[in-house]
Design brief:
Helix content: 25-40%
Number of strands: 6
CATH class of the largest domain: Alpha Beta
Number of helices: 6
Radius of gyration: 16 Å
Distance between the termini: 39 Å
CATH superfamily of the largest domain: K homology (KH) domain
Number of domains: 2
CATH architecture of the largest domain: 2-Layer Sandwich
CATH topology of the largest domain: GMP Synthetase, Chain A, domain 3
Largest sheet: 3 strands, mixed
């Protein structure tokens, strides 16, 4: 597994991370990433400190999500107790669509599109009205998490995120 931050793609490898930008991780975020590694034996690619919702959002290496969460969520509960903040985790994916789907879990995302209009942005389509509520989250916490992660990984020019119900079903 390669770290995606500073390594260019191999010659024959198609770059699905053309839109991935270089990120800077602060000392405090590095400390939280190390704390995760010590407490759960899993690896995080990034950590976002969200003071508005008093939480830490970890971007977990693909395949490490089960280890990071722990049996019945024990690792998350232990980390919340040690760090005194709510802990949320998102599994990283090389494909931009899948990564955005992972951000909105447990909402069932049917489609992720990137319209090239005046606003650009990202359009996320979910199955029904209940799923829209899950995708937005209580007080907008899930949609705000998505905005922070998208800006961090794809840059501020990636636009806003629009969640809509699928009317075709």
């Amino acid at each position: 597994m390669r770290n995606i931050d500073n390594i260019p793609p191999k010659e024959n490898e198609s770059s699905s991370r053309d839109n991935t930008m270089e990120r800077t991780i602060s000392f405090k975020e590095r400390r939280y990433i190390e704390e995760l590694r010590i407490l759960t034996k899993s690896t995080a690619i990034d950590c976002i400190i969200d003071d508005r919702f008093d939480r830490l959002i970890y971007i977990i290496t693909p395949g490490d999500m089960g280890i990071a969460i722990g049996k019945s969520g024990d690792n998350i509960k232990r980390m919340q107790k040690v760090l005194g903040k709510r802990i949320e985790m998102v599994e990283y994916a090389e494909e931009r669509d899948q990564f955005i789907r992972n951000i909105f879990k447990p909402a069932e995302v049917l489609q992720v599109s990137f319209p090239e209009g005046e606003t650009g942005g990202i359009r996320v389509t979910v199955r029904n009205k209940n799923e829209v509520g899950i995708a937005i989250g209580k007080g907008g916490c899930t949609i705000e998490k998505a905005r922070m992660i998208v800006r961090r990984f794809f840059g501020p020019e990636s636009g806003d995120i629009i969640v809509e119900e699928d009317h075709g079903a």
